[in-house]
Amino acid sequence: MEKRRLFTGILFIFLILAGCTAVNGKQEIPSPAVAHPQSEHKSKQDMDVLIIATGDMSGVYFSLGQAIAAMYEKYDGVAWAAQVTNASFQNVDLVSKKKADLGFATVDVFSEMAEDDSIPNIRVLTELYSNYIQIVTLEHSGISSFKDLEGKRIGVGPDKSGTKLAAERILSAFGLDDNKVEKHFLTFTQSADALRNGTIDAAFFSSGLPNPEIASLASQMPITLIPVPEEIVSKLNKEHGNYSENVIEPDIYEGVNEGIQTVSVKNVLLTHKDFPEKEAYQLVNTLYKHLSELQKIHPAAQDIIGTEAKMEIPIDFHPGAKKFFQKRQIPNNEN
C-alpha cells in the first residue's frame, strides 16, 4: 500500500510539472492534475495509473478529463489521471507514442495530422461535444466584425493547438494574413488576462460552451463576440472540411444577449491501436451508461449524444468502440 501511495504521489508531481512546461512557457499557475489512488481491481495493462491527455487547465478538456478519470475509476475499478497539455495536437502525439492512453482532440486537428500519415497508431473511441470558435474583444474596443481586426493584436492560442489551427484558417479565409494582424500565441488564461490588461485587442477561444475564462472576463467587463459569417464557414469546408455553422446562444455569457453566428468543430476521444479491445469497449460503455453524471460536471457534455456517434473522419474506430456501437446499433464511420 505504501509503495502504491508513493507511486501515485510521484505521478501527481510529474503531471503538475508536465502541465506547467507543456502549456506555453509563460504559464505561471501550476496545473492541478489529478492522480487517483489505485483500486483493488487491476487493469490488464501492466500499469498502475492510466493517463488521459486533456488541455489547458482553464478549459473544458481538463474539467471533463478529470470527471471521466473519476468515473472510470468509480465504475471500472481502474485508476486514471488527467494530464494538462497544449490540447489537441499534443494529445494526438502523446497517445500515438503511447505516452498517454486516452486523449481529446478536435476533428480538424485530427484530419490535419492524418493527411501525412503521421499518426497510424491512433484510433477513435467516440465523438464527443462541439468546440465553438469564440472570438472575444472588449466592448469599448470598437471592434465588431472581422474588417475591424486588420492591424490589431490577436490572441490565436498556443503553438500547436487546435485553437491556433482554427484561428489561422479563419483569419486567412478573411484575408487577414500574418502581415495584416499581430498574432500572440497565448493560452486561454493568458488571452483573458491580456484582454483585461489591454495588451491584445481580440482573442480566439476554441472550446465547449461556456468557456470559463470568457465567462470570468464577461462578469468583470462588457465583452463583444465577433460573428463568423456563413460564407466563411463554407470557404473553410471547401478548403478543409470538418466545420459546421453554429450559434452561440444568447446569455451564455453575461451581457451577450443575442445569438452569435460562428463555426464549430467536433471533438473526439481517442486511444492507440494497441489499447486492449475489452477495455476499450468497457470505457465507451461506461461513458454512455453514466453520461448523465458527466453532463452535471460541465454544460458542454450535454452535447454528447450517443445516437450521434458517427463521423466522416480519416481515422478508423477502435475495434472495442466498433463492438459497442454495433451492439447499440449506432453507426460509426464504417457502417
From TrEMBL:
PANTHER family: SLL1037 PROTEIN (PTHR42941:SF1). The lineage of its organism: Bacteria, Bacillati, Bacillota, Bacilli, Bacillales. It comes from Siminovitchia terrae (Bacillus terrae). This is TAXI family TRAP transporter solute-binding subunit.
